[in-house]
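Appendix B, Record 12. Input sequence as logged:
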Amino acid sequence: MFWEKTLFEAVSPINGKIKVSEKNGQRKLTVDGYTQSVSLNRDGLTGKHYWDIFTDGSIRLDQDSRVLVLGLGGGTIPKILTRKFGLVIIDGVEVDPLIVEIAKNYFGLNEPNINIFTEDAARFVKNAKYKYDLICVDIYNGGEMASICSDNSFFEDCKKIMSEKGVLGVNKIIDSSYDLKNYLDFLRGFFKSVQYFVNTKNLNHTNAIIYCRS
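Logged structural output:
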């Protein structure tokens, strides 16, 4: 067991206090004390279900697929997808330029298939030029989900840029079964199929991965 070592600390005008640390060979990006990204292990996973589950058996991608990651962070999701599916094109959107620099400098986010856009997620989606086979929504301000993730127009715009068999995955922190039900009902207003996955029976402040299909 090794002590946690701080590699970088700064205060971002967008996200507040940011820290990169390392323990037992795994790096972690925290924003205002909340874990935003972690590095991958030898299996190309994190050991944290709410990231690793984005590549579960229901997701099918090939070399012609295109992926959109909203909330790039340190690049955990793009790296997992690249390790599993190869050099599929991934467009990663992150509003905070400091986070982008951290992703490159501390998490090695330099894969040739990953295009990085330093931009507001809602604006990017509204003006997107491509259709996507997988859209990953993982947009947080510290421990709070971004307000656009409860905005009707945001999901209407996401739906417009999904391919015919496209999937939209949302990482949602839930505080109760009631909270989960309300958010699922909200998403069912836009998508025909809405499924969720959690790895615990205790739904008090845990992550649910929600898959939506038109």
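The CA atoms of residues 60 and 85 lie 9 Å apart.
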